[in-house]
Amino acid sequence: MIAAVSLFLIITFSVLITKICTIALVHTGLSEESAKFQSRSAYTGAGLSTSETENIMNHPVRRKIIYNLMLIGNAGIVTAMSSLILTFVLPESNASRLYGLLIIVGGMLLLWFGIRSSWVNRGLSRIINRMLKKYTDLDIHDYAAVLHLKDDFKVIEANVDSDGWMCNRTLQELNLREEGITILGVHRKGSGYFGSPSGTFMMLPNDVVTIYGKSDGIQSLYNRKKDYYAQLEHDKFVEKEEERIVSDKEKLKTQADE
């Protein structure tokens, strides 16, 4: 029975640890879904190789979080397996084994409902956030909230194609701000990263651009080639952005009148 209780406690601590690491990764600028995926991968030792994993390994704070999580995960999985084996090997009677099984099943169900509960998740997140702010020097920012990554807004990275509409044109010529699209930065091989580039900055082939804007506008931008239809697409999204601005002004006016 002691082994069964130990197994339940180990799994509970494992869930708590991955939750803490997920929130810590979110504070470094990673999206919640990516942070959750990377935390679980590191804890279980899945070791999946993705572009997101490269971003984590190139970030000193994220790398430290994942490194510590991998060490804890190795110890936790071994201990959990040992406790599971002892739960059914040590007891001399079937009744004791049954009690151990009931503790494990009941504990797992309780833990599952706790994980699925939005109330528990919000409360736990607030506590972890408060502890991280108080006892760590993490850069505490929820970038998804800061950039308002909802209502179809998003941030992506994409390459500039040699035959693309953006290639060999300055930001001033592209005039993307009129479409509601903002260039946050450009990474150029051999030259480094250019943050918040000015209007005279020219896009070159294979530049990796970080873009903020509406999903449909960004998708349209990267589908455009150097032809007549590209300008038509630009004009269409400029018109859509103007309509959005007018709509936002009307909302503000209505709120002010109320």
Describe this structure in words.
The chain is an alpha+beta fold and 258 residues long. The chain has two domains: 2-135, no CATH class; 147-257, Alpha-Beta Plaits. It is built from ten helices and four strands; from the N terminus they run αααααααβαβββαα. It has a four-stranded antiparallel β-sheet with strand order 1-4-2-3. A hairpin with a 3-residue loop joins strand 2 and strand 3 (192-195). Helix 1 runs parallel beside helix 5, helix 1 (2-27) packs across helix 6 and helix 2 packs across helix 4. The chain starts with a helix and ends with a helix. The model has no long low-confidence stretch (mean pLDDT 76).
